[in-house]
Specification:
The protein has about 90 residues and is an alpha+beta fold. It has one domain (about 1-85). Helix content is about 20%, strand content about 45%. It is built from one helix and six strands. The chain has a six-stranded antiparallel β-sheet with strand order 1-2-3-4-5-6, with helices on one face. A hairpin with a 5-residue loop joins strand 1 (about 25-30) and strand 2 (about 35-45).
Amino acid sequence: MEEIQKQILLVKEDIRRRFPECAYTIRILLWDDDTSLVECRHGTGEKLRISRYYNGELQYEEVDIKFVDNIMISETGLEYFPCNNF
């Protein structure tokens, strides 16, 4: 679990470096084969910005989004639920 905590800090610091005053959401996925994915997400009305630690590598991605019935949808059809609705 200590390794996951380091990954959380890494992705959070990456997003905060790019967007110092942003609100963000941390997402952690753990699989049975001991692999994991840690993401820090920051969304605006037009883009979802994701700092991700996966497979031993820090990655950054910007996804164009649109809102349909208050759900963010990427160009590829992936749905992202805004955290302020929960």
